[in-house]
Amino acid sequence: MSMTMAEKHAVTRKLSERYRRARKLEKSALIDMCCEVTGYSRDHAARLLRAGPPQKRQPRRRTARRRTYDAEVLFALRRVWATLDGACGKRVAAVMEQTVSAMQRHGELMISSETRSKLLAVSAATIDRMLAPDRAKLALKGRVGTKPGTLLKHQIPVKTFAEWDEARAGFVEIDLVGHDGGVLRGEYCQTLDVTDVATGWTETRAVRNKAQVHVFAALKEIRAALPFPLLGIDSDNGSEFINHELYRYCQEERITFTRSRAYRKNDSCYVEQKNWSVVRRNVGYARLDTPEELEVLNDLYARLRDHTNFFMPSAKLLSKTRDGAKVTKRYDTPATPYARTLASPHVSDTVKRRLTKRYDALNPVALKREIATLQRRLYELVSLKESIRRREVQAPDLDDIYDESTKMAFDDILT
């Protein structure tokens, strides 16, 4: 039966004590005994008996490494992160310099030059590690309610990108987000979400319901607000989009009009992402169905327009390859819609100068404060409405209406 290394060391240790005191003939016998018991060669056994078995190594004591990013850097990083609506480390790192400069320009971030240098040098992984406790407080869910419109469906082609140029600003995806609160009966507010494929520029407008007259009016208003000409529209198969009015309008204005395949949300992946990051994260899932709530919602979207397009970076998927079960995705460097618009050769210099002037005048932290104020006002309206509906003296707990991540999670950081 073979011996374990610990047992061999124990035998060698015992024999080595006798070996050092023994005479020459006795030493030879001890070497023979060690070889027989342990299976060592004679030369190896002799070396071990002369020197003794190897001693157990003591674990090396690690000296604590000096912290590179101190409390002042963490404080500044939390303010930048909160201003960017809790973005991931890669996105925060990509626009760190621009955001810090904008905050300092408006007096929202008072830090030393050393702290600024550290803030600009921090890596994406370190950002995520430092902000892990704050990120752990955020989370969400989802719902959908699109009714298909069969009218004109055969005349509006499914998008094949034959007439689309994804690299050119002006080709947009559109979708409606319903604020039904889980109750589909009756009328309730809808948000028209319009997202440009090339730049990620996003415009949102709230309408009282999904009637085509309101949706069409909001779409024309958004078209006028876009910083570049509207060249193409891709929608889902809802009746609010698949109708004679919008079809005729696109033909007259020479706008390419296509639709996605039924039940294929990936066909409208760009706008679906913004449904979550712009609408749901900032508005939540409550039922909004009063004129007051509609007004506050549009005031909120006016602030979100500047915050999302000028300060919120996003990464675009460049390629996706599959090797068996492994899928590898490669993304470009995160950039804001504003930066992508400035980089587009299809946008005029006049428009770029106007956007730059607008960007220089914007205070990202003040925008976040205004957004939080309007969110509180919206929540108060919903709370009061629910209180009246339930005939309660005390307003209901907002935890029953909103997810944790839709509350003002960054108020304490930006105060």
Task: Please provide a written account of the structure.
The strands form 2 sheets. A 5-stranded mixed sheet has the order 3-2-1-4-5, with helices on both faces. It has 17 helices and 7 strands. 48% of the residues lie in helices and 10% in strands. Helix 1 packs across helix 3 and helix 13 packs antiparallel against helix 16. The protein folds into 3 domains: 47 residues, no CATH class; 65 residues, no CATH class; 244 residues, 2-Layer Sandwich (Nucleotidyltransferase, domain 5), CATH 3.30.420.10. It has 415 residues and is an alpha/beta fold. The chain is elongated, with a radius of gyration of 33 Å.
How many DSSP helices?
17
Mean pLDDT: 85
Order of helices and strands: HHHHHHHHHEEEHEHEHHEEHHHH
Low-confidence stretches: 148-154, 398-407
Strand order of the largest sheet: 3-2-1-4-5
CATH homologous superfamily classification of the largest domain: Ribonuclease H-like superfamily/Ribonuclease H
Main sheet record: 5 strands, mixed
Task: Name a few traits of the molecule.
415 residues; alpha/beta; Nucleotidyltransferase, domain 5; 3 domains; 5-stranded mixed beta sheet; two-stranded antiparallel ribbon; 17 helices; 48% helix; 10% strand; elongated
Structure in a nutshell:
It is built from 17 helices and 7 strands.
